[in-house]
## 1
Amino acid sequence: MRNPLSDRIVTIPPSGIRKFFDIVSEMKDAISLGVGEPDFDTPWHIREEGIYSLEKGRTFYTSNAGLKELKVEICSYLNRRFGVFYDPDHEVMVTVGGSEAIDVALRAMLDPGDEVLIPQPSYVSYVPCTILANGVPVIIELEEKDEFKLTPEKLLEKITPKTKVLVLPFPNNPTGAVMVKEELEKIAEIVVEKDLFIISDEIYAELTYGGEHTTIAALPGMKERTVLINGFSKSYAMTGWRLGYAAAPRLILEQMLKIHQFAIMCAPTTSQYAAIAALRDGDKDVQAMRESYDQRRRYLKHAFEEMGLECFEPYGAFYMFPSIKRFGMTSDEFATRLLREEKVAVVPGTAFGDCGEGFLRVSYAYSLKNLKEALSRISRFVNKLDGKA
Ligand SMILES: Cc1ncc(COP(=O)(O)O)c(C=O)c1O
């Protein structure tokens, strides 16, 4: 029999996040601080809207780009929160999570050999989706000394005549780094000068703790160069509803929509109705969850300081990215031993790029009770390594 598989997919490794969770799921009394998923239930009024839509028999396909009502709400939300204006009829599409939007945007924009700049550490899908879209991923290694922000120098270093797209992954998973307006302005200048396009993954836009999020699409001359990606998973605790969206200039969105049309048809109808309720009446829920994450964030920062784990202060998403370099172990060794010896699961920084070596991703999307227990176990482990126990 011939090999049924494509070389391209076989050479892509599976996500490094999953490995630990398979072990955790079989380990009694293990605590996971590993998953990047809100611990909150979807707010009840949003769930109710989903249930109501089922009761009303709204169980059919929607139009490919999504329900008009939802697209109108998305555009008014983007305008209200971030000061960008999009036309609901031509510049926004509803997708199966931000995940689909990332994939479709890359497939719509890349020709074979086009280079995509991907700052790392960052979310696990950008590199494989670039490869699957025939593009060439070019990694920009971000550093702790820059608070894991993308600097103009680092960007300029990696631009070649083949560079077409820059992925802008802020607020960042796994580092929690954010980029403020003045920093984005410098990036925008280079993007215009070098004639690049941006895929801006703003899935954590609502989860910032040091000031409001700025979207690069709102800066002068940037809307026409940006595909803005967002979704409901993180801000409204709706991961399982699988709903996100992309907003982009018509020229790009029309082509993205074709891929979505043939591959997906439309995002889940029930989820689309629920999402309308989220955007109309969900601000107070987002606010309450943000405050709770912020409380946990400050608790963790303090606890890491107390146990001598160096960690720069993250102002976005729900992750801390402490350094474990002083222990002379790889991230994978540290995480594996922590799991085996203290039954706490975290993710090695290397799951998000080679430059994540020496760091761990610790999610604080867990209850304070769980965080406290996990932190006391981590502290015991660190003391043991330091020879104090
Ligand atoms: C940075 C980032 N982008 C996109 C996604 C995809 O989210 P979803 O497909 O649930 O919208 C995630 C999920 O963890 C993420 O962390």
Note: The CA atoms of residues 98 and 247 lie 11 Å apart.
## 2
Amino acid sequence: MKILISADMEGATGVTWPADVLPGTPQWERCRSLFTSDVNAAVLGFFDGGADEVLINEAHWSMRNLLLEQLDERAQMLTGRHKSLSMVEGVQHGDVDGIAFVGYHTGAGSQGVLAHTYLANSITGVWLDGVRAGEGLLNAHVVAEYGVPVVLVTGDDLTCEDALGYAPGALKVAVKDHVSRYAAVCRTPARTASEIRAAAKEAAALAVRHEPVRGGPFTMEIEFDAEHLAAAATVVPGVARTHGERRVAYTSETMYEGIRTFKAVTTIVSAAVEEQYG
Ligand SMILES: [Zn+2]
């Protein structure tokens, strides 16, 4: 049994503030250990539950946050940027039986600690076939096309609630309770590690590959906080304005294509954001 862990940082134990997750800050250096503790707890739990292999795919910012030297020696880690499936890279080779979303968060425009969808700001909402989407929902659709079930989700309490929509059967661990976008009631790493480990052990039993799901075509709608960002996004072929000045939409046959187009849009939009005026 092979498990893939998609590891994001905003939903990690103790993390509530931008500096906690911004590479290079002293606070990020501190929070890397807390993040690594959550991920390692999941690794230990999956091995407890009978996994033969656990691959961790770093999914936050520069994708170079976890401390390899603090991980259980049986795990392997995919670190660094420029991967065709981004946050769920590694799922496409036909050998993964289940995936865990560790350190996840709610989507842009939703309540939740450090809520966003791919870009930290500029995007105010994403809808997949009319349903508000965060990274969890989008990535769940990608992995379903490879027949891989989401078996474990960790993050704040609202992330766990959100996951009921896209992975109802998955185990969920809330490591903190939302108070505002930048505040939460946090549990200690000792406590969250034991809860994540226990949940991952149980989640291993759910890691059974199914037939690939062909749910397309998918229509994605993206709303930005400024009109010129919508204009910039239409540079990507197939992306057109919809519903007013700040929204664009596109349709893809598969979520594989859908997420790649989304990446193209966010890359172009990031380059169009001006430091002061947005
Ligand atoms: Zn994220």
Note: Residues 8, 10, 105, 135 surround zinc ion (CB under 6 Å).
